[in-house]
């Protein structure tokens, strides 16, 4: 990846990580690599943060929670938010129609389009 970063004129990057404390090691490597090549990190997003069952009110933290936020704090970069584990997000990606375009005001799209909270 470092050769790609050195080839393309990048002005900023967003690092995507999982919520587990184990997996953000990849995010840490990306943060260190971007620092090494002087690419500003705009923030970190935590993917697959939690899962909501329609019949239950509490969220389920399948892959733990907060690892990306702790990594962001450790490296002094903004934590941009978390994206819920939602089948519609995967399905939209599989079919080439992201949820943010298919239904910008739908609950799954709100993670990607924060200005559509209502």
Structural overview:
There is one protein chain. The chain is an alpha/beta fold and 118 residues long. The chain has helices at residues 2-7, 24-36, 67-75, 87-94, 99-102; strands at 13-17, 41-46, 79-82. The model has no long low-confidence stretch (mean pLDDT 81).
Keywords:
alpha/beta; 118 residues
Strand order of the largest sheet: 1-2-3
Profile the largest sheet: 3 strands, parallel
Order of helices and strands: HEHEHEHH
Shape call: globular
Could you tell me the strand content as a percent range? 5-15%
Percent of residues in helices comes to: 25-40%
| Global Rg | 16 Å
Q: How far do the termini sit from each other? A: 38 Å
Poorly predicted runs of 5 or more residues:
none
Query: Could you report the average pLDDT, rounded to the nearest whole number?
Result: 81
- E-strand count: 3
Give the arrangement of secondary structure elements.
Elements: H1 2-7, E1 13-17, H2 24-36, E2 41-46, H3 67-75, E3 79-82, H4 87-94, H5 99-102
Helix pairs in contact: 2-3
Quick rundown:
The protein has 118 residues and is α/β, with parallel strands linked by helices. The protein has helices at 2-7, 24-36, 67-75, 87-94, 99-102, and strands at residues 13-17, 41-46, 79-82. The chain is globular.
């Amino acid at each position: 990846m470092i050769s790609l970063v050195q080839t393309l004129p990048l002005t900023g990057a967003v690092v995507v990580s999982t919520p587990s404390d184990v997996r953000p090691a990849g995010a840490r490597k990306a943060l260190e690599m971007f620092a090494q090549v002087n690419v500003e990190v705009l923030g970190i997003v935590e993917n697959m943060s939690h899962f909501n069952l329609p019949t239950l009110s509490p969220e389920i933290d399948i892959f733990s929670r907060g690892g990306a936020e702790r990594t962001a704090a450790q490296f002094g970069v903004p934590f941009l938010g978390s994206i819920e584990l939602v089948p519609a997000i995967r399905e939209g990606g599989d079919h080439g129609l992201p949820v943010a375009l298919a239904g910008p005001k739908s609950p799954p799209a709100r993670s990607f389009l924060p200005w559509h909270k209502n």
